[in-house]
Amino acid sequence: xxxxxxxxxxxxxxxxxxxxxxxxxxxxxxxxxxxxxxxxxxxxxxxxxxxxxxxxxxxxxxxxxxxxxxxxxxxxxxxxxxxxxxxxxxxxxxxxxxxxxxxxxxxxxxxxxxxxxxxxxxxxxxxxxxxxxxxxxxxxxxxxxxxxxxxxxxxxxxxxxxxxxxxxxxxxxxxxxxxxxxxxxxxxxxxxxxxxxxxxxxxxxxxxxxxxxxxxxxxxxxxxxxxxxxxxxxxxxxxxxxxxxxxxxxxxxxxxxxxxxxxxxxxxxxxxxxxxxxxxxxxxxxxxxxxxxxxxxxxxxxxxxxxxxxxxxxxxxxxxxxxxxxxxxxxxxxxxxxxxxxxxxxxxxxxxxxxxxxxxxxxxxxxxxxxxxxxxxxxxxxxxxxxxxxxxxxxxxxxxxxxxxxxxxxxxxxxxxxxxxxxxxxxxxxxxxxxxxxxxxxxxxxxxxxxxxxxxxxxxxxxxxxxxxxxxxxxxxxxxxxxxxxxxxxxxxxxxxxxxxxxxxxxxxxxxxxxxxxxxxxxxxxxxxxxxxxxxxxxxxxxxxxxxxxxxxxxxxxxxxxxxxxxxxxxxxxxxxxxxxxxxxxxxxxxxxxxxxxxxxxxxxxxxxxxxxxxxxxxxxxxxxxxxxxxxxxxxxxxxxxxxxxxxxxxxxxxxxxxxxxxxxxxxxxxxxxxxxxxxxxxxxxxxxxxxxxxxxxxx
Length: 700
Hints:
Elements: E1 3-5, E2 16-18, E3 29-33, H1 37-46, E4 53-57, H2 60-69, E5 74-78, H3 86-95, E6 104-108, H4 114-122, E7 127-130, H5 135-176, H6 183-194, E8 199-204, E9 212-215, H7 219-223, H8 227-232, H9 236-239, H10 243-257, E10 261-269, E11 275-285, E12 294-301, H11 303-349, H12 354-381, E13 389-391, H13 393-399, H14 401-408, E14 412-418, E15 425-427, H15 429-446, E16 451-462, E17 472-481, H16 488-491, H17 511-521, E18 525-531, E19 535-543, E20 570-574, H18 578-590, E21 594-598, H19 601-610, E22 616-620, H20 629-639, E23 644-649, E24 666-670, H21 675-685
Parallel strand pairs: 3-4, 3-5, 5-6, 6-7, 14-16, 20-21, 20-22, 22-23, 23-24
Antiparallel strand pairs: 1-2, 8-9, 8-12, 10-11, 11-12, 13-15, 16-17, 17-19, 18-19
Helix pairs in contact: 2-3, 5-6, 11-12, 11-18, 12-17, 15-17, 19-20
């Protein structure tokens, strides 16, 4: 039913109506771009039952014209088109402020290699699908975006309607209170509107401690007390104020009584004993015709809004800290590369001086511990380079049993509960082991007098209704202790970096944040449950590996052999940090390689043009000058097809998807690296083996 408000002094013919259906429902459109009319027809038929208007365009230019005039829930775009292809069209759409939010799904029957996939996602696509596309899958994906668009527009529509209702309510209420003869009809209509809003309206005398003169009936539904309580007990409202807010609120209430419009926010204890956060706005209306002045105000429950704002602020804080720590760790890794490389060269020079060699080794080990700290920072920032593989989590847990028993001691009993038919998880084995060990150590510290530690693995299915996990199968690893547990305030900060309840020197506060970053970067989710005195449970949801991914060997099965020395191959070293570049140059020269160097991408291309032979490009990934390491390698290999590439970086965030690490000549090296790591990576990138030969670095 429409809500009708009659301003003072107007006849019924001048009623202002605010109808819930006053704003038209949003029209949902989906744009399909393909140069083949047959594909357009097929797409239209596939999406016919989506309850959305399907717009067809036969070129990128036509698609841009459509986007200029209309908004779309999603764009399905062919990659390979004459004239302006899908990548160029997507970039232009993304560069326009009003259209950059539109999800773009690329469809292609030709460009299926990793480079095009990377380019598609770089152009702003949310998905990259290969033709022929399964109609059911396509329709399901588009349905998600259509429903998201429809719900988003509905939220905007409801917000606009609510804003109109609120504005009209304030205006009408102020006008009606000006005239005594219209007061009764105004209050009746006001009550009708107020019952439909999550807001309390009231009037009261200017004296402190007097009862309300009027309060809307919905006060009982919102706060649990009947309206009569506020109309008869003058001190009731202030008696329920939070003690910490009472003095501040009293000052604001006094300001209201002095005139003007005042706003105050405070906590008020409802009938259920819980404090609600209320936003009160009021103004003093002067008395007329011998009537005393009167306070007229509104009380809005903003508890949920403030909680959402706190959650958003927490997420933004974590993201900011992640960016900061990731950047610091990246720069620190560059410096550590220089320190570790120089110390290793120095160690080879002091082999005949045991005292100096011992000091060099101490410095080297300290540098390696610093490297582990930066790795933890990158793990929290989700910028570490992961090497996901198919890992049997049940076997991983059992293989770590002996290590866990030594770590926990005899006072703690370890129980392992594995479910049958467990699918392998697609994770980085080393990071998974580190995460489990961190949780075990935390459990040990929570049970100083002993207890039981239970590690359970199971396979779970996430459906479309799970807001935190993408649909699919997951391995759930649960680590439960019977320790002291965590109160809510500590639990809320469990994953914050550098937050720890342990004594100084007994914890960095990075363990759980590192696990959180690793799980998130792996496409999973970590949940925690804890109560004081009842223990803690961590649930790690890790995605199952596809059947096409081979099960990884355990570390005991891997072959450990030294890298092959160089055989005169020419290596071009590219790094914008001169010291890092020099460490790499000297190490490679000691290994027997011929080395040339460059500071950035353009300079490296000039060196390649002037050198008769270059076998390997060893380049940093993140470099200034408008060309990163990946772009440099692509251009260099275009000009010199036989050139191999080796990448290095403090982190590979944003470009690791296009490195193509599965083929020879496209290896990746994480900074800081040691001499032997560089030697093995170079030999592997060049396509050499590692059998039986033991290289000896030349003494510097």
